[in-house]
Amino acid sequence: MTEKDRPIYRLCPCFALDVEGIQTWLEDLAREGLFLDADGGFFGFFRFHKGPEKALRYRMIPLKQPQGFFADMSQEPEEEERAYSAHCGWEYLLRYGSFYIYRAEDPQAVPLHTDPTIHAMSMAALKKRKNSRLLSAGLYLLILSILGYTPFLSVFRSGALFGLFYLLSIAGVLGWLVLSAVLDSIRLSRYQKRLLAGEGIETPRNWRKGAALRRCLRFAPLLLCLAYVISLGVALNRSAQTRSLDQFPQPLPFATLSDVFPDTALERSGTMGDYNTGLNYATALSENYEWNEAADLTFQGQPYYAILRLQHHETFSDWWAKGLLRDYYTYEARRYHGKRFETLEAPQTPFDDIRIFRSYGILHILIRQGSSVTHAVVSISGPEQSQHWQLWLEAMLRRVS
Amino acid sequence: MPKHSMDILTESMFYVLMALCSAPMCGIDIAAFIEARTQGRLRMGPATLYTILGKFETEKYIHQVALDGRKRTYQVTDRGRLAYSQELARLKQCLLDAQGGDCHD
User: Fold this and answer.
1) Of A130, A117, A112, A2, whose CA–CA distance to A57 is shortest?
2) How confident is the model at residue B85 (pLDDT cuts 50, 70, 90)?
3) Considering only CA atoms, which of A188, A164, A163, A177 is closest in space to residue A220?
4) Which residues of A fall within a CB distance of 8 Å from B5?
5) How far from each other are the two terminal CA atoms of chain B, in whole angstroms?
6) Which among A110, A111, A118 has CB closest to B10?
7) Residue A173 half-sphere exposure, CB side, CA atoms within 13 Å?
8) Please, which pLDDT band fits residue B44 given cuts at 50, 70 and 90?
9) Contacts of A39 (CB under 8 A, 6+ apart)
């Protein structure tokens, strides 16, 4: 392969809907001897081949068919249209995003669009399709809000060292969707107006201004997705650090069944899933524990069965802890709204915040003390199926005091 | 500014309807008809032509009657014929207004 045949790749310095910018950029490259290859584009990169410098015209025509999720992905122009375009001196090159790109060598070739009103009409149809994307992003945000998006809890549930990236990546992707849709709409509207005013097609654009920033911004969605994948990867790694309870050094910053029943022998129940295991991991935001305990015991001469599933977080600030407690509560309330969720009256305690509720019949206790949060699911069954979850709360009070 | 994009036909749209009112045609033949009828004054760009055909099909001014290989043949509908005749009447009135005369059928 000679140097002349070797493909040359260039990252487009313009946003995908900047028609005038992209056209001017391609024409400038042609004047430098770089010519766009047919089928030579992916993720903003275009493939060129070297040749003698020439003055060419490049034009971008919006796709006509609606682009749905199940639409024909090939979506090439109709054969007849391509044939007539070739007859008029225009070579079809490739599809780029929402556009077809054509090229003409003959400066006398009939323009692809000879009626600016019709050209503006085709842009209006494209704008309508793009605006529907904005609507989709808005609906998604609305649904997330209704379903009770819990940003603080999401950070900890991901359990990632880059837990904040998890939160930011989701917010970032959604924000990017909305912002890019708005900017696209504005860009298309302005181009439409220029077309109707008789400008736009033959007016070169200074694509160099801001090109470096635009090229960087192209990678923003990719970086956000990468941050999300990294955070998930760390989360998976975290779950592999689970160990048995007796491997945890004492004392722990929360009450366990041993604290509830200090002078009682606990007969650990057989391993059910992750029972009688714990997890301790640190993130940039907190020190975290997960604790799952189940045991048979004899208390005051009576057989008891106790289960304790607990998450404890030593966060970096009180306000973060408040948000986290609120998220735990909201998560369960939204999940089991109505008759399956019941808030119980919490006793007076020295804790900064305490909430007790029953979610689908299961008792939850949420405690915040300063910047630490404990979420416990407690079941202490005694004789005749009596419940004694207060014993755990008393043990927590002893621990805190 | 018309509320609906089809309230007033542009020159290109008018000539496309003119071509199809004379006979069913494919896109390339429409362009050739227009160039011949206007003696080269109006040369239809391919993007303009096929955008108009797409729009007319959506608005049911025309419909496809045949597909022969890569060529789609279109025929004007009654709705399209009506739009054409209305535009023709409007243009005639404009001409008469310019000449300062009254409209006589």
Assistant:
1) A112
2) very high
3) A177
4) 121, 124
5) 29
6) A118
7) 15
8) very high
9) A93, A94
- The span from the CA of A45 to the CA of A47, in Å, is 7
For residues A283 and A160, the answer to whether their CB atoms sit within 8 Å is: yes
Report the residue of chain B nearest A112, measured CA to CA: B45
For the segment A316-336, what is each residue's pLDDT rounded down to a tens digit? 889 889 988 988 888 888 776
SS3 assignment for A6-72:
CCEEEECCCCCCCHHHHHHHHHHHHHCCEEEEEEEEECCEEEEEECCCCCCEEEEEECCCCCCCCCC
φ and ψ at B12, to 5 degrees? -60, -45
Q: Which residues pair with residue B85 across a beta bridge? A: none
DSSP classification of residue A387: B
DSSP element (H, E) containing B87: helix B78-99
Contact A30, A53 (CB under 8 A): yes
pTM across the whole model: 0.66
- Across chain A, mean pLDDT equals 80
Among the listed residues A317, A315, A296, A321, the one whose alpha carbon sits nearest the alpha carbon of residue A307: A296
Residue B81 vs residues A1, B21, B78, B87: alpha-carbon distances, Å? 59, 7, 5, 10
Its ipTM equals 0.88
DSSP designation for A254: S
- Distance between CA atoms of A265 and A163, rounded to whole angstroms? 39
Q: What is the DSSP string of A100-113?
A: EEEEE--TTSPPS-
Residue linked to tokens 């047919």: A38
Identify the pLDDT of residue A66.
56
CB contact under 8 A, A64 and B54: yes
Q: Measured between beta carbons, which residues in chain A are less than 8 angstroms from residue B38?
A: none
User: Would you say residue A365 has pLDDT above 50?
Assistant: yes
Partner residue opposite B44 with nearest CB, options A79, A80, A114:
A114
User: What residues in A contact B10, CB-CB < 8 Å?
Assistant: 115, 117-118
HEC assignment per residue over A323-369: HHHHHHHHHHHHHCCHHHEEEECCCCCCCCEEEEEEECCEEEEEEEE
- In angstroms, rounded to a whole number, what is the distance separating the alpha carbons of residues A272 and A270? 6
* C-alpha span between A374 and A291 (Å, rounded): 11
Q: Answer yes or no: is pLDDT of A98 > 90.
A: no
HEC profile for A184-217? HHHHHHHHHHHHHCCCCCCCCCCCCCCHHHHHHH
Question: Residue A153 has which token pair?
Answer: 């809890």
pLDDT score of A160? 44
What is the tens place of the pLDDT at every residue in A20-54?
889 999 999 999 999 999 866 677 789 999 999 99
**Cβ contact A52:A133 at 8 Å:** no
Mean pLDDT of A203-208: 76
Q: Sort A138 into a burial class: Cβ within 10 Å, 0-12 / 13-18 / 19+.
A: middle
| Strand pairing category for A302-315 and A372-381 | antiparallel
